[in-house]
Design a protein that fits this description.
The protein is α/β, with parallel strands linked by helices. The protein has a single domain (2-224), classed as NAD(P)-binding Rossmann-like Domain (Rossmann fold, 3-Layer(aba) Sandwich). Helix content is 39%, strand content 18%. It is globular and about 45 Å long.
């Protein structure tokens, strides 16, 4: 499979690439801003990993698409994993905070997915958007994550809409609402909190779902959490 993973330089994305590259038949493109971390990841994978340093907040994705096309002309799986979390009380969140959070978690996802549409040509192509239990309706919410949760809720609804819109093309779109996972991003926002799952554990589950979940699901927002709301 030809697979793209965003946010590949750390956390779940880092572990996702390692897991997906274990299958020599996969060709895995990893996208992240940090070139040094992508290089470190390449040292832990085989020759089927293709790192592309790129800032997904850039308004013009054409240079990125050109680099992807130089690796593969088609995409079987797109995993929109890159994200930004800011822990801040609602009254202290600025307009700039809201803009930054939505830029990374929503606008960049929409921009890249739209740009890759022509490459998602094979029936059964699968877009997996990584959401959060914070954006899952009816779930318990963490204080301080109003902007982050709102952004992830937007991603969930966008996934449902795209699944319907792209159904005639045979493209499947799902959203995974993840519970807490021990990553660098979580530790920075909640330094005294210990998540029930490690990044490599969640990555293994996501990797399997991304490759095979489209046989069973489309247009679904699926809670992936060991705790109940």
């Amino acid at each position: 499979m030809n697979i793209i993973v965003t946010g590949a330089s750390s956390g779940i994305g880092f572990e996702l690439v390692k897991t997906l590259c274990q299958n020599a038949e996969n060709k895995v493109v990893g996208i992240a801003r940090n070139e040094a971390k992508l290089h470190r990841l390449s040292l832990q994978t085989s020759g089927n990993f293709y790192p592309i340093p790129f800032d997904l907040s850039a308004p013009d994705t054409s240079p990125l698409i050109q680099q992807i096309q130089s690796v593969t002309p088609t995409v079987d799986v797109l995993i929109n994993n890159a994200g930004l979390l800011i822990n801040q009380p609602f009254t202290q969140l600025t307009d700039a905070n809201w803009q930054q959070i939505f830029e990374v978690n929503v606008f960049a996802v929409a921009r890249l997915t739209r740009a890759l549409y022509p490459l998602l040509t094979k029936p059964g192509a699968h877009v997996v958007n990584i959401g959060s239990m914070g954006g899952y309706m009816g779930s318990a919410k963490f204080p301080g994550l109003s902007a982050y949760s709102a952004a992830k809720a937007a991603v969930a609804v966008m996934s449902e809409c795209l699944a319907e819109e792209w159904q005639p093309d045979g493209i499947k779109v799902n959203c995974l609402a993840l519970g807490a996972v021990q990553t660098e991003m979580l530790n920075a926002a909640f330094p005294h909190y210990t998540a029930p799952l490690q990044a490599h554990e969640m990555a293994a589950w996501i990797a399997h779902f991304a490759q095979f979940g489209n046989r069973y699901f489309n247009g679904k927002v699926l809670p992936v959490s060991v705790t109940t709301p």
